[in-house]
Amino acid sequence: xxxxxxxxxxxxxxxxxxxxxxxxxxxxxxxxxxxxxxxxxxxxxxxxxxxxxxxxxxxxxxxxxxxxxxxxxxxxxxxxxxxxxxxxxxxxxxxxxxxxxxxxxxxxxxxxxxxxxxxxxxxxxxxxxxxxxxxxxxxxxxxxxxxxxxxxxxxxxxxxxxxxxxxxxxxxxxxxxxxxxxx
Length: 183
What we know:
The protein is mainly beta. It is built from two helices and eight strands; from the N terminus they run ββββαβαβββ. Strands 1-2-3-4-5-6-7-8 form an eight-stranded antiparallel beta barrel.
């Protein structure tokens, strides 16, 4: 059991999100669950569930805990990463507001700063963890997926459902107790 913090950006129209999460890991599998804070409004606006499967590169301590012989193959891991995020009644990102205003100003008189959308999104991609100071992991991830507005606004230039690209980075503290080495 552990916890962490991250920031992620995607082209879903909302911009960036800060996240905090609890991590539950067993073997090569990790689940993270936690709330999301919209970067522009600084309000808690949703939640995220993510899953990671380690493909390569566990450190010696983790290998011992899983019954593998100890080796010194470093503290870098590459994982398959996926997530689902729900965003509730949240403003558009600053850049999306500028684009909607310039693209629709002649046809739709609307203050795009007041528009709030609920969105469901999911993605799959790659994650790289770098472990340092024995307990802290710096995590970076990139993925491709889909977003869908659950309460779309008529006349909006951005598609109601579409492909998205996302990137993120964060810090994880996987556990507070250090495993004893088996001799």
